[in-house]
Each structure stands twice: as C-alpha cells, then as structure tokens.
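Journal club side-thread
Mid-discussion, someone asked how the predicted structure for our own chain would compare to the paper's figures. Pasting it here so we can look after the session.
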Amino acid sequence: MKPNIDIDYICSLANLKLTKEERSLIGPQLMKIVEWVNKLEELKFEVSRGEVHTPVSFSLSFRQDKIGNSIPAEKAIASSPEKNNEFIKVPKVFGKK
C-alpha cells in the first residue's frame, strides 16, 4: 500500500515555501522515507537490557543549587526600561501569525 503524503500539510508544519518543481522532487523522496520506516516496522528482534549500546558515552553532572546574593526586587524593577507595578515588562515572545 502506497502512503498518502500531503506535501502542503508537511510544508505548513515546517513553515516551508516550496516551488512546484521542489514539491514534485520532494514528494517521491518523502514516499521513499515512509516506505523505509514501514520496512523497519516489519523487523522482529529482541534486545535484552544488557545488550543495548550507545555510540557515545556520557554522564550528566548536576550541581547543587545554592542560594546566592542577588539584588533586591525593587532595585531590579527600578532599573528596568518598562515596568508595570511590581513586574518588569518585556516584549511578547509568542504571538499570532
């Protein structure tokens, strides 16, 4: 069964603007990727916890949280360019498109 890929929907998710030529090229490529993933789902294998290996070994080091000296809130708010009572006003980060 051939997968049905909605190129327009994928482009909207990725915020891509593609020409007709680019869309005609990417369609078959995406179909091939989906076919490969479907092929992987057909594989049957078992792995025990002791057999899983990662190519990179690393350890996460965490530091202890320490309370340090900070400036009083009033001083921080007083030096901010825009304020609203006891809060610092900042520009919007998220908004409607």
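Post-session note: The two ends are 37 Å apart (CA to CA).
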